[in-house]
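Incident review: delayed structure delivery

Summary: a single-chain prediction request sat in the queue longer than the usual turnaround. Root cause was a stuck worker, restarted by the on-call engineer. No data loss occurred. The affected request and its eventual output are reproduced below so the record is complete for anyone auditing the incident later.

Affected input:
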Amino acid sequence: MISDVVGIIVICIGMVFSLAGVIVLYAYKGFYIKAAATSLIDSVSFILIAIGIIIYSGWELLSLKVFFLLVFAMILNPLSNHYIVKGAYRSGFKDDISD
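Output delivered after worker restart:
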């Protein structure tokens, strides 16, 4: 009972963080700043939502699957963002504010 309420609260916090991050993202001008902010927004909101799902579902097989998905995403999300930005930098991409 209490785990259901806590799980829903954590999921809602993750969703609010994701929505706020998307809204704030419009304030940034450059590609590289947006890429860094997007990586943080995606990582933190996904972590909160996944932890909320684990708390909500209790100790079941679903929790174990979501935990492995969480670990997998925590490793690959920053890594993929790094290689996207690295590829843009190596190709010579210059955004509006990196003069």
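Verification: The chain has one domain: 2-90.
Action items: add queue-age alerting; document worker restart procedure.
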